[in-house]
Amino acid sequence: MMRMQEDTRTILVRYGEIGLKGKNRALFENRLMDNLRAVIPREGIGQVRKDRGRIFVDPAPDADTEGLLSQIARTFGVVSTSPARVVALEEDTIERAILSEARRALHARPNQSSLTFKVETRRPNKGYPYTSPQINAWLGAVVLRDLGDVFSVDVHAPDVLLQVEIRNHAAYIMGHTVRGPGGLPVGSSGRALLLMSGGIDSPVAAWQMMKRGLSIEAIHFYTPPFTGPRARRKVEDLAAALAPWGAGFTLHLCHFTDPAVTLHERCPRRLHLTIMRRMMLRQASALARHLGLGALVTGDSLGQVASQTLENIVATDDASRVPVLRPLIGLDKEEIMDRARVADTYDISILPHEDCCTVFVPSDPKTMPSLQQVLDGERNLPEHLLGETVQEVETLVFGPDGTMSEKPRGES
Description:
This protein is 36% helix and 21% strand. By secondary structure, the protein is of the alpha/beta class. Helix 5 (201-211) links the parallel strand 10 (191-195) and strand 11 (215-222). Helix 8 (272-291) packs across helix 9. It starts with 7 loop residues before the first strand and ends with a strand. The model is unreliable at 1-5 (pLDDT under 50).
């Protein structure tokens, strides 16, 4: 075998749930690889490849490895990722590599005079003459022999985890791991349309469903002059924040002033919020069917506000012709806010710019209306607001880096 250069580098990507997909596993692996190619700048990588339960991202010669790790670790489907030193299957070469990674870990912690470590080996190459426990013992002894004045062993909670993978043609040595979000690759579970407000909940609902493999587009209903340009910009910023998680993001903006004013003038005041949400679901449902999206997604949490009682949810769902998914239905506000911080949407969501639901909501909305009461309350609305029609929308497309990649375009 040709001797390998010891400075060969790659980034090893681990996945979890994908490995349980049986005969469909390759479809999920390929989707994850496509998403990695989308989120990583083209000049940053040489190749994305897979081999026996792992995906590898080969950096370009001058690539920022830490930047690549950060981008990879924001990709759904990735459980964790590590920069790896790739060396020949020769004992002295592997020993030098493990010592190099141990020293690198030490230099990354200049304020610590002593560290604990553990060697953990995975051996997909079953032809290698040593078992995983034997390799752990051998390389642990190497580290203690050369760096025992600094390192001691802790197999339960080590400061440094030195990982080794013995593969068919090389050994992969790693001393640093970045955790990913897990889940399934975006796009592997279908496509859906999110009803996005400017609040905390709906962006988190998008994030949760992207984690389950749904490709998400969003529709936002805005009501100028009752809501100003800063409210619209806030929603655009939320879409940009979600784009890196979804390998891009599409936002549809629907002008909703006339329907909201008509509802305000013609419907019972206490039913305004429920009827408004039904109108929104009708239009969102029509747009989803027009775009070939299989479901709607909302940020409802049961009992959190007046519109999210069981009775109001039943009355609202009656207006949609596609399934409505509610990934936050059983979460409380603190749990939702925690997820918003992870998704990097929280600081945007708390900006004090109102959406149309907060502007038009009555002070005492009816919390437990029957469906018949709501239908009776809609009787004075024009037919075009009660039918499932695709209203004219403005569409913004955000690239994986969060920048708008296309000019707004009209869609009907």
